[in-house]
Amino acid sequence: MVESPESQAHARRRTLMARPTLDEIFAEPDEFGLLAVKDKPVLRADAADKNLVILRDVSAFFQRHGRLPELDANDYEEMRLGAIWKKVSKDPSDALLAADHLGLLGTEQAAPTRSWRDEPLATEIPESLDDILDDEELDVRADYASLRHTTPAAERHLSDHRAEFVPCRDFDKFEEHFDGIQTALESGERKALPVLKFAIIEPEEGDVFIRNGLFALIAEKSEMTARSGSRDHRLRVIFSNGTESDPLMSSFRKSLNEDKTARMVERSTLGQLADDWEADRLDLSGTIYVARSLSDDPNIASQRRILHKIGVTSQDVARRVADARNDPTFLLAPVEIVATFELKNLPRQMVEHLLHRFFDAARPGELSIMDRFGRKVHPREWFYVLPEHVSQAAALIREGTLHLYSYDAAAQKIMRKA
């Protein structure tokens, strides 16, 4: 039988009325003592008791570390204890002084330790590197404190060789070549290609560029050297206004990138395998020079009278060696020009190749220097020869008879072949 909703509601009301209230529950006997709860007394320590606890903790810290806790310590607990102790120790009570058995609150207290965050005292600042190295507490070996493979400070303040523009003394050799390039550009036989920004350009002898509105011909590219850890060369650049300059290849490349109107004149041939690829390279005569190193390196200075560099350049010899102290090719030291021999109607590169091959037996295989980056460099243009030997070889080249002779390195003589 299903009860009606009214019957169900009436039954629920009867059930609720039968339940005891809270007052009735608490009025009943507490058989198990569940309601007999006693409040715990709140212990409120006064300031004097707290200070005694801090003194006890600081004394324990002092006994462990031999010092007071620091405010700026890296450890959080030490920093917290140091901050509280600073406040407590300002105005200690009589009870606190009586409990201070270590005398941490008295006049015997050690001076606070200076922090690394504090500004250094004027007397603590060394005036020079020598003051640091002379410190008795700093045990440094003498060879650790000596600088090697570096340019002395006095020399670093000297101005470096600057690639300035100077009149080209033999411009008549280039003027006709510039006129031919101008005609080829106007007729469309050649094109002037834009130099892309940040393009890596490797100029070769005979390359022609347009920079700042002038033709720039790479007339000479010296032997490879190392600058700032990368390959570099010294260039001789002839400009169509009758001037010349001798920048580093990296500097010339930078000047092209900075000039938004810079152009590179393409060669008239199809590629490097073509027979006329070298047509733009002029067979320039030049000067044979013999240089002696003025290096302070004992290994080089001891051989100064016999060790010489043989080079050939189409530019002024003094300008070629002006940057010798920064050039590993010149052993990173100034040089002294001991002899020069003029060439007449003889290609510079051919003469240089003949001389180096002729004196190859006198090339020191063990000659090397350390550059500024700690890398070993082996210059290839230095020989154990005397200037008179180079003079004799130059005369034989002019006569066209060098192939009939050879150089005896042991006897240090130029001898006719059998």
Structure commentary:
It is a single chain. By secondary structure, the chain is of the alpha+beta class. The protein folds into 3 domains: 47-99, no CATH class; 166-280, no CATH class; 287-416, no CATH class. 31% of the residues lie in helices and 17% in strands. The chain contains 14 helices and 17 strands. It has helices spanning 5-18, 22-27, 47-65, 76-88, 94-99, 129-133, 142-145, 153-156, 172-187, 249-258, 298-301, 317-320, 348-358, 387-399, and strands spanning 166-167, 192-194, 208-211, 214-221, 225-227, 230-232, 235-239, 243-245, 263-265, 287-293, 307-313, 335-342, 369-370, 376-377, 382-384, 405-408, 413-416. The protein has a 7-stranded antiparallel beta sheet with strand order 1-8-7-4-3-9-2, with helices on both faces. The protein has a 4-stranded antiparallel beta sheet with strand order 12-10-11-15. A hairpin with a 5-residue loop joins strand 13 and strand 14. Helix 13 packs across helix 14 (387-399). It is elongated, with a radius of gyration of 45 Å. The termini are far apart.
**Percentage of residues in DSSP E strands:** 15-25%
Return residue spans where pLDDT drops below 50 for at least 5 consecutive residues: none
How would you describe the shape?
elongated
Helix residue percentage = 25-40%
What is the mean pLDDT? 80
Specify the structural class. alpha+beta
Q: Could you tell me how far the N terminus lies from the C terminus, measured between alpha carbons in angstroms?
A: 144 Å
Q: Sheet with the most strands?
A: 7 strands, antiparallel
Number of helices: 14
Number of domains: 3
> Order of strands in the sheet with the most strands?
1-8-7-4-3-9-2
Number of β-strand runs? 17
What is the CA-based Rg, rounded? 45 Å
